[in-house]
Specification:
The complex is a heterodimer of chains A (261) and B (330).
Chain A: E1 6-13, E2 23-30, E3 35-39, H1 46-53, E4 61-66, E5 69-70, H2 76-82, E6 83-86, H3 98-103, H4 118-130, H5 146-159, E7 164-168, H6 176-191, E8 195-200, H7 203-209, E9 212-217, E10 220-226, H8 227-230, H9 233-240, E11 244-249, E12 252-257
Parallel strand pairs in A: 3-8, 3-9, 6-7, 7-8
Antiparallel strand pairs in A: 1-2, 1-4, 4-5, 9-10, 11-12
Helix pairs in contact in A: 4-5
Chain B: H1 2-7, H2 9-25, E1 26-27, E2 33-34, H3 37-42, H4 44-78, H5 91-106, H6 110-134, H7 140-165, H8 171-180, H9 188-207, H10 211-215, H11 219-224, H12 229-251, H13 257-269, H14 273-297, H15 305-322
Antiparallel strand pairs in B: 1-2
Helix pairs in contact in B: 2-4, 2-14, 4-9, 4-12, 4-13, 4-14, 5-6, 5-7, 5-8, 5-12, 6-7, 6-12, 9-12, 13-14, 13-15, 14-15
The chains are: A alpha/beta (261), B mainly alpha (330).
Amino acid sequence: MSDPILELSDISFSYAPRHAPVLDAVSMRIAPQSITAILGPNGAGKTTLLRLIMGLRQPASGRVQLAGRPLESYSRKELSRWMGLVPQAEYLPFAYTVLEFVLMGRAPYLEVLELPRQADVDIARHALGTAGIADLEHRPVPELSGGELQLVLIARALAQQTKILLLDEPSAHLDLGNRNATLGILSRLRQAGSTVIFTTHDPMAASLIADNLVLMKKGRIMHAGSFEDTFTSEKLSAAYSTAVEVLKLDGTYLVRTREGN
Amino acid sequence: MKRKLWTHPLFLILLPLAVFGVSLMIGRYPKPGFMPISSLLNDQLAQRLLFSLRLPRLLSALLLGMSLSAAGGVMQMLFRNPLVEPGFLGVSQGAGFGAALSIIVLGSSPLLVEFSAAFFAMLGLVTSYYLARHIRFGGWILRLILSGIIVSAIFSAGLGILKYLADPTSQLPEIVFWLLGGLYAVAWRDLLYILPVVVVGLGVILLMRWRLNLLALGDETAASLGVSVRRERLVLLFASVAITAVVISVAGIVGWVGLIIPQVARRLVGANSANFIPLSISLGGAFGMLCDLLARTLTAGEIPLGIITSLVGAVVFILLMVSPVVRLKR
């Protein structure tokens, strides 16, 4: 494996002292230009892991390295030029238009007192094009459907022009068409040189684009590695504590579960 | 087309300027209505009245409207709640308490009352902020709103006690009149002390007007976009409260401006604070002067400003929101 762009060593974290750890001795290496899917049951610590990678929370122990440097050595602004985060959902109290909203992705490149320039507007428009939603430009964000909002959030992260993109459940709430559109965007981003990490509850979505897979359970990594090695009936069953069967059909994976054991 | 007008810098400057010019010439001297240019040129009393009474009063009304509207807009964004008004963090009630305390204990010299009101307004903010940091549950917004309500309640109870103790023939009417708000007592020396605060505060808010959008997205998203959330929020919060506190200390509690003007501005140009904050300031300035004009000219006496702003504010809001002529943003 080439030099990792992100390296987590022995990360532990809990939201309050003396509480059970949400992450327990988590280590992983992320290669540049790869897509990593993080899979695991609810409460496994997937979202928390993304927050720590993004530097929004500090680990209680262990360290995160970005491009060979400790994460703490980056300023908030530097980090926001390296990594973009697509949150699961976002509560928006004011009715921005889609373009105004996506333009906020340009903040990492603006000084505190600066307003976005025409170049920033062009980049935001380009991001809308990449996400396939150029026609939504003037729509108020609160009026969008769940799927459209997801694409808008992705477009904002694209406007950030970062090398790494972190996505929290990008395919939840999406219909099949929108899910495939989203996965298509991610896979094109990797071709263009980006590193993508996303959490998901949908093993099928992971199977369509992921190079690497991380299986988490109760704050620990159960299995991690290349997709082929990790996406097996045995390992998925262990992670989800339920019988999961992986079938391969004409080169695509099918996952099915049976009730009970 | 509409949107272009509302965000055009020339319009934003000319609107309050026009109201300023008109208001300056309207009053009850030499007779009710417009002051003729001839008396301005020849009549010394007219010149003095214009310069020493109307001008400082008009300027304060301008600063008052601009400050409350800007601060209201900023706080609505910071608290991600369009129903927040600028005095809610214990600032308005603190000012009221301070003014009443001064009227009863220190005497009613305007300077003392203003100083005491400003002091307790800031104390209200500091107490709310301090309390919010020590509440052991909830997110930042919930804690701060809650402590604002609590601190306001304490000051409002204190104000009640002071009113109860006040001499009903001399002190009580003075307290009540102060609480209703008004600029009747404003002189140049008041401007001297509110102007620097308002210029700096409004300057900060105007310069950071686009940045405000990011803070309205919530802490984590803002941080992931490279914002130093705590620092930038504190700067904006302090700027808004400072300008609110100084204008309230001079004018008394003038309600509704800070709640309604940002709402109106947002309906006209949309949620982007880079657009609606400048419009808020411009509309607020014009609105403040218009309301004060009505307060001093409608009757031979003086109608408290707070009454006018609430009444006119509500009517203007209704007209704007239901009129099919005005194109609104959602």
